[in-house]
Amino acid sequence: MTIDAATSENVVGEDWSTILDICDMVDVAGTTGARECVLAIAKRLPHRNPNVVLRALSLTEALVKNTGRDVQREIASRPFTEVLVKVLQAPDTNGRVKQKIVSLIAHCTDAYASDPLLGYMRDVRDRL
Q1: Residues contacting residue 33 through CB under 8 Å, at least 6 positions apart
Q2: pTM value?
Q3: Are the beta carbons of 88 and 100 closer than 8 angstroms?
Q4: Residue pLDDT, tens place only, 47-95
Q5: 26: how many CB neighbours lie within 10 A of its CB?
């Protein structure tokens, strides 16, 4: 996958062509592909460069909007959500990153409202 390429610190801005290619690849890769993709994104979230983290969050948002249930389950999972919370609550996290995480959690909560299996994200939003 090209998660590292889409979130690289050498990339200026968001590469939407790569992001949409990732969405397409992950959507057809099934459960294993979804898990690997979300795990790769989770590894990028604690990065020291806020631009890398912002790109990883943009990729996550694109996956929420453009992929199916397998990916959504991985994004709404406890392990991935807890990574978001950990980054959000870290004292040295950039302000724009914090805003983007709160926005992503709110978006996921709305997107997953009709599926009780994806409710952990809602529980976290209510906790924050």
Answers
A1: 25, 26, 70
A2: 0.92
A3: no
A4: 999 999 999 999 999 999 999 989 989 999 999 999 999 999 999 999 9
A5: 24
Q: How far is CA 93 from the centre of its chain?
A: 16
Residues 6+ apart with CB under 8 A from 13: none
Residue 75 contacts residue 111 (beta carbons within 8 Å): no
Q: Please, where are the H alpha helices in the chain?
A: 3-7, 16-44, 50-66, 69-75, 78-89, 95-111, 120-127
Q: Is 1 helix (H, G, I), strand (E, B) or coil?
A: coil
**Residue whose pair of structure tokens reads 């929420």 in the numeric block:** 64
CA distances from 83 to 27, 43, 70 (A): 22, 9, 19
Tokens 């199916």 belong to residue: 68
CA–CA distance from 106 to each of 28, 70, 99 (Å)? 26, 20, 11
